[in-house]
Write a structure and sequence with these properties.
Elements: H1 3-7, H2 11-21, H3 23-28, E1 36-39, E2 43-47, E3 57-61, H4 73-93, E4 98-102, E5 118-123, H5 139-153, H6 157-169, H7 178-183, H8 196-202
Antiparallel strand pairs: 1-2, 2-3, 3-5, 4-5
Helix pairs in contact: 4-8
The chain binds zinc ion.
């Protein structure tokens, strides 16, 4: 298709065209096979075909969205809730010591397919993944960034006030004393992991 045609299309028409040609939509509709780990009415979790590490999972919204801003807040929440579950399963079953939860949001960020996805990548010591360079910012640059961020906050004030009011109303439930105890690091339990759990979790997907 010529780029002129694309320019004359509305954003919803472009989305429809993307959807038709989307590999991940075809995976979701089972036209293309995948190593499925989990599926419900809103999301599907599969093993990445080019994993950064063993157990690298991709969480896909079943509906086609290209980038994060298009996704309804409620679904964003559900995607992260799923990431939390998958991360917990990976920590238990693969005896890894952490997970990186990662979104490439837009082409410049390394997004390769036009279907939004959340990566959950198991981490092990010395795996050399995600070694981000550290860039020093001078004060002028920091001020500029801070200025932009403060602009973002303004429209939310009403919402914040509402949330604070709601919080105040449910206060009696909370016990802030417990937090300090939870913050202490827990002993490493990786030695106790049952390898059979992995098979159960991945439904034999590793062989495919
Ligand atoms: Zn898609």
């Amino acid at each position: 298709m010529a780029s002129d045609d694309l320019q004359n299309m509305s954003s919803s028409e472009i989305l429809e065209l993307q959807k038709k040609n989307c590999i991940f939509c075809k995976i979701i509709s089972k036209e293309i096979p995948s190593n499925e780990i989990y599926s419900d009415d809103r999301v599907m979790v599969i093993l990445d075909i080019n994993p950064a590490a063993e157990g690298h999972c991709i969480i896909l919204p079943k509906q086609h969205y290209q980038i994060l801003p298009q996704i309804p807040d409620e679904l964003v929440g559900y995607l992260f809730k799923t990431a939390k579950k998958i991360s917990k399963s990976l920590l238990k079953s693969l005896a890894v010591q952490g997970t990186t939860i990662f979104v490439a949001n837009g082409g410049l960020a390394g997004q390769k397919a036009p279907h939004f996805m959340l990566h959950v990548i198991p981490r092990k010591p010395g795996d050399l993944l995600f070694r981000l360079p550290k860039n020093n910012m001078d004060e002028k640059e920091l001020d500029a960034v801070q200025g932009l961020l403060s602009l973002m906050k303004k429209p939310e004030k009403k919402q914040q006030a509402k949330e604070q009011k709601e919080k105040a109303e449910e206060k009696p439930k909370k016990k802030p004393v417990k937090k300090e105890r939870e913050a202490k690091p827990k002993p490493d339990k990786s030695a106790k992991v049952n390898i059979d759990d992995i098979a159960g979790l991945f439904l034999g997907g590793k062989n495919g």
